[in-house]
Amino acid sequence: xxxxxxxxxxxxxxxxIRSLKNVWHPCAQIKYPVENKSNFYKIPLIPISHGNGPxxxxxxxxRYLDAISSWWVNLFGHSNSYINKxxxxxxxxxxxxxxxxxxxxxxxxxxxxxSSLTQYKLGHCFYGSDxxxxxxxxxxxxxxxxxxxxxxxxxxxxCLQNSYHGETLGALAVTNxxxxxxxxxxxxxxxxxITTPDSRNINKGNSANEIARCAIFDLEILLKKNHNxxxxxIIEPLVQCAGGMIMYDxxxxxxxxxxxxxxxxxxxxxxxxxxxxxxxxxxxCEHAEIWxxxxxLSKGITGGYLPLSLVMTTDKIYxxxxxxNNINIFLHSHSYSGNPLACCAALATLEIFNKDNILQRIxxxxxxxxxxxxxxxxxxKIINFRQKGMIWAFDVIIEDPEQIETFSKKxxxxxxxxxxxxxxxxxxxxxxxxxxxxxxxxxxxxSAIFQTFNEVIT
Length: 458
Ligand SMILES: *Cc1c(COP(=O)(O)O)cnc(C)c1O
Fold this sequence. Notes:
Elements lengths: L9 H13 L25 E5 L2 E4 L4 E4 L2 H4 L8 H11 L13 H13 L6 E5 L2 H18 L7 E5 L8 H5 L4 H4 L10 E3 L13 H19 L3 E6 L3 E2 L5 E2 L3 H13 L2 E5 L23 E4 L11 E5 L1 H8 L17 H16 L2 H15 L1 H4 L4 E7 L2 E6 L7 H14 L2 E2 L6 E4 L7 H18 L2
Parallel strand pairs: 3-15, 5-6, 5-7, 7-10, 10-11
Antiparallel strand pairs: 1-2, 2-3, 4-12, 8-9, 11-12, 13-14, 14-16
Helix pairs in contact: 3-11, 4-11, 8-9, 14-15
The structure holds pyridoxal-5'-phosphate.
């Protein structure tokens, strides 16, 4: 693993060195000993020059198929001509204006379109820029609703095991992935954590329904005792993505909705990763035919172009907060709230869904890709092959837990050599490609993953 000199070309090396000097790269915590050339590139840092459809091309001309949609945001490929054109038009009109006291067409049209997609059940859209902020907004709004109604004690939240809702302090408090919160635990509010209805337990002989009912039991016990203290439960509908692509049956969403009604607590659906068609329907909640009290969107909503997030909510919540009186209005003032360019990219994204019949395309493509991957299912080193919409995942058996970290790095590096951008989560390898792969690209993606697998797992 050590001493992988990834770039032979001088220009690439220069960019890598400069980037490592002044750019603080997120997540990949790679201590590059820049001075010590002998231990140079532990993991490659790839200077990307441009993008074209599902392909990313680096400065030395090497291409990579973006099979993870650049952290799950890119839906219709890089440098998409339709979105490009819409943005250029918007750029000539209005780049930004504050949304307090002022308004503009892109934000109005986008809010109308999204509301109509929920049949106006969630007819009020509040805007931020990143996913974590949308989660903060939903948590604050939920608390604020109960506050205005006189339920001053309802200020705790529930989340699921392995949940991920972002990394600002409020969002991190409802995240249950140890590595992200370990250091910061003392800064975070205490949250109730309940069993996740992980469908991998089907392998142990339980049906999806039994798994869901078992997990719900946990919620019910908690609420029986503590519902007076609890404002909301926050969940990632159907797939807990950052937690390791943990999938579960839609019956769980139905049951959670019921219980929330019975015990007077809000349901916050964090669809930041699973929204915008990723699970095969525009909103993942549609699989269960339920609506939450708050729905968070971000990531794919602009087609992966610009940062935008939003929280959609009901008349009931909107009215309780908005029309009260001056003291109790909802405050979350964000400079770039409803940015016209980002809204314009989101509108273009929704137009593509319509004009290219994307949901139908997804329902066909997911079958093709699943079929192309079938021989992975029976591989002796692979367990828990799973799929939901345009997400595929499987777990690789690694005997020594200490080797899991090395495995994911090795896999990442080997995949790059095979012109594929993949980034396993521990021993979970997943694909989350853009929705526009053609036959050859599907072929490339699947053969590159087999090739990589054979190189890494011997
Ligand atoms: C990515 C993600 C977030 C956080 O979004 P950012 O834009 O990275 O802050 C929140 N929830 C889920 C489910 C996510 O996948």
